[in-house]
Amino acid sequence: MSDPAGQNDLEVRGLTLGYPGRAVLRDLSLRMPSGRVTAILGPNGCGKSTLLRALGRLIVPQGGSVQLGGRDLRGYEPRLLARRLGILPQAPLAPEGITVADLVGRGRAPWRGLLSGWSTADREAVARALAAVHLEDMAERPISELSGGQRQRAWIALALAQETEILLLDEPTTWLDLPHQIEVLRLFQRLNRERGLTVISVLHDLNLAARHSDHLVLLGRDGLVAEGAPEAVLTPLHLARAFGLEARVMPDPVTATPMVVPL
Length: 263
Fold this sequence. Notes:
The chain is 32% helix and 27% strand.
């Protein structure tokens, strides 16, 4: 998935987002680089999930625009956009009685016609997605029988089965214990390195984000605090502005990425 001309860059220009009577983000401009793993960070209520929803065209901006490869998202035909950009929202709901394999198979919808049957490519994409999250043995089990962590992995598999160029993830490590959080973040890193997949996720753990991301976007109560490489974003000054947090930042002893230690 090479992108020599930045055709998969997601860019927001003068973006204002919010709800009736309340703006959450005002006049925000930034670029999410293609072919990278980006994490959106910040305190609760600062607009992280709202921004991600706008990047996925799930909400309409009050002002400004979101552009993909220089083209406003509003100009894309829905099926074409769904082939380029996938989104996993917070706490999605599965239809009652649906199995893991059927749920993951729904990720193939943008690639299939209304009356077309399952192709070899569809079956292979679902199998790859299930294997990536280690749910092959649970493919025929109802989603309702899975633990919270297993359900989250099934939803991640649905997003992977969509086989888009860009993947948007709203708190993908929710319900996962620490080993599975690390496993999932490493999976996204590997898909990025091997396939050039652009990954943009909302995360809460600053140190895990620094370990597993190339690019960070740090939001505060008043909008954008910083964006760029982890070492440029996670500084004591930026953490104080975003979170009101006094912290020391030192190299992670394993990865040498920034490690935040609250004081």
